[in-house]
Structure formats: C-alpha cells, structure tokens
Amino acid sequence: MNYTDKITLTSKELASAMALCGYNSFVRHLISAKNMVSKKKKDVNLFSEEAEQSLREKGFWHARTETNLSKDLEDLMNAVGQSKRNFHCKRLGHELFIHQIDLSFSICQFVDGEQHTFTYLDHRKGYKEELARFYKLDPGSSQNLSKMQPIQVSEEVYNSLHELKDEEIEQMFNNENENQSFKEFIVAFKKNGKVFNPFTFTETDYVDGKSRTDQVAFSVPGDDMVWHLEYEKVSEHKVYFIPVSVSDYFKKIEDTIYEFFEQVPTDTKPKAKIKKSQRTNSQKKDKPEPFSIKRGLNFFWKSNLVLLIMSFFILINKSSWVEDGYGTLLLYILISEVMIVLLSFFSCFPKKVNR
C-alpha cells in the first residue's frame, strides 16, 4: 500500500483479512464489538465464504499468496496488527483510530458504521487537522472564551447528566438563574447525544491479545470550542467542565499523541537489547578469522599425537621385523610428517559453511 492510497473494507472483510494474517485477538475484539457472527460452525463458515467473495470482488484476493491476500492489503493488515500503540476517539456513530507505525508515519482508521477506511498519515504533519475534521470543527478556530467560565458540578449531578430528558434540558436552557456558560454546555451536551467523547491512548499487542490503557480524556464539542471534562478532583466529589478553544485543545491532544507514540513500550526495551546482543555474538561466532595459525597448530599437535601412538604400536612388534624394518618405519614417519605439515597449513583457513 502506497502512502497516498486509501483502502476501504467492511467489518466482515477486515475481520477476515486480519484472521488470514494471524491476528486473532484483533478479530475476536472486532467480532465481539460489532456482534457480526455467532459461534455456530455453519455461521462461521458462511461468514468466511461471504468475506472471501467480497474481497475477490474488490480485487484484494490472490490465491497464490500465503495469506490469499493482495500485497497492498497484506502489508496494511500487518502494519495495523504489529502496531504497538494506538489512539482512539469517538463521536456519534463514528470512530477514529490512529495506529503507530514508526516515527514517520501512522495509519488512520476511520470507522463509519460498518465501513473502515484506512489511510497513511505523515507523523511530521501532525494530527490536529485530522482530529478537528473528525469532529467537524475548524482546526484554526481560536475563539475568545474570556467570557466563558469553567463549570463546577457535584458528582451526583454529573452522574445524572446522561439521564436528562430533552424537556429538562430545555428548562435548564430557559432558566434565567443559570449562567450562560452552563447553558452553552448543556446545549452542546444534548447535541452530542448526551455522552462525553473519549480520547483513549492504548498500548496493544494484537498477537498475544494483551492491552493496557495508558490514559483517557473526555470532552464535548461545542460551537467553535470544546468542553474538556476535568475529573482529577472527582475524589472530592467535584467535576469541572473547562471551555477550551478548538485550536488549543487539539494542539494539546496532538502533543500528547506525539509524546505517547515516541515512547518505547517498557516491556520491549530489555528484549530489544537482548536480541541485539545475541545477534552480535552469533555473528561473531559465525564469522571465523580468514587465516588462523592457532587452528593450524591445533591440528599439527593433534596429528603428531596420533602418529606417535601409531608408531608406539608398531614398535611393540619389532622382534618380528625384517632387517630393513627400521628404514621402512622412518620412511613412514617422514611421509606422515610431511602430510601433517601440509594439512596443518590448509587447516589455517576457515571451513566452508553451507547456509
């Protein structure tokens, strides 16, 4: 997949492609989240057949490859599956995932219902505009919020916000005793489906299925602004809604993404060092010296030791030798010694190893 390409898959196609590439934990999570198929064997088989047919129709199916997928799709699935860190946010009916690849590029996964659209993002160009576009806000908006005030509510009020009826929200908006900041917040909250949008930073391993949430933030998009949920004092039964300009808020989220993606997962640091050390030691062992006198001397003394032992056994039977037996023995030793010297020289060179 080229960095300018865009690939769109249905949830069914995505699950099938990830399964063919071996990322089963990703598939289980996706199937569970979308409730796509039951555990019955006939349903699973039908699911696989339909996904395969759909991938064929889009030109993503190549029966001659190991995964049966086209190279572009296989590369994309491996990039997503091997991503160790991702950023996730939501709005009504839509989701956005940003999967870290390296320090230059990330993969953006925009989810609209059952449609997943993948594109590459240039890490150096930032994420501010992508986030603002996702929430349909102007990334350059820096509205003057000097007249807006942070809103403090009790934990009880905060917990009841999700259950407010439209009539109750209307009454709050028309209540003259309510300040303007709260009125604007409650309208934005209603418009957002009476939910807070999460920003989640997760460290994930799609191979072994382990994941860890690093941090979470919540907000509500308003009219050219964002209401940030400050819950650090929730232990004191206080919750704050802070008005922030679009530009400032998404710049802060962008900075956090940069910081999160540039970190190396702590559990991979020792492994990386060990692997590098093992690889270096292995290379040293596998690559012998081009000419070693030590190897020649080693062969020389071992060979002479064998010749000495053989000569000893021959001398045991000297009583049965013919008259010129000593001459024959000396000739045998001389020829053997010449051969030993010659072979010792050749043994100084490394052996040829077949790889």
From TrEMBL:
Keyword Transmembrane helix: yes
Bilayer-crossing regions: 299-317, 329-349
Keywords: Membrane, Transmembrane, Transmembrane helix
Protein name as it appears in the record: Uncharacterized protein
Organism encoding this protein: Fictibacillus barbaricus
